[in-house]
Amino acid sequence: QVQLVESGGGLVQPGGSLRLSCVASGFTFRLYAMSWYRQAPGKERELVAAITNSGGSTNYADSVKGRFTISRDNAKNTVYLQMNTLKPEDTAVYYCYAVQFDSWGQGTQVTVSS
């Protein structure tokens, strides 16, 4: 079955950086687009970034453009989210999502606070 396992979250000060990873299994990873979503307390889950199967095309939420970078390594069945210049409003649980399978990871907490 499809399994997505995120890691890399944590507590970071404003202006800092984190890199999230999501390891996928149970499907042919290189054939499918992948996405990162986030959900802050009391808010709806929102799309953060997406990447095509080859990695040749990406798109981002306006709130993270220029600060976050999504990438993938198809040899490692892994999608990444590099997050720079983090702000307190980036605090959320971040989820990996495989849209074609409607499958979510368990999430990883990112907290941006001084």
Overall radius of gyration = 13 Å
Helical residues, percent: under 10%
Head-to-tail CA distance between termini:
40 Å
The class by helix and strand makeup works out as: mainly beta
Total number of helices: 0
How confident is the prediction overall: mean pLDDT?
97
Low-confidence stretches: none
What does this structure look like?
The protein is mainly β. The chain has strands spanning 3-7, 10-12, 18-25, 34-39, 46-51, 58-60, 68-73, 78-83, 92-98, 103-104, 108-112. Strand 7 and strand 8 (78-83) form a beta hairpin. It is globular, with a radius of gyration of 13 Å. It starts with a strand and ends with a strand.
Topology:
Blueprint: E1 3-7, E2 10-12, E3 18-25, E4 34-39, E5 46-51, E6 58-60, E7 68-73, E8 78-83, E9 92-98, E10 103-104, E11 108-112
Parallel strand pairs: 2-11
Antiparallel strand pairs: 1-3, 3-8, 4-5, 4-9, 5-6, 7-8, 9-10, 9-11
Keyword list:
114 residues, mainly beta, 7-stranded mixed sheet, 0% helix, globular
Brief synopsis:
By secondary structure, the protein is mainly beta. The chain is built from no helices and eleven strands.
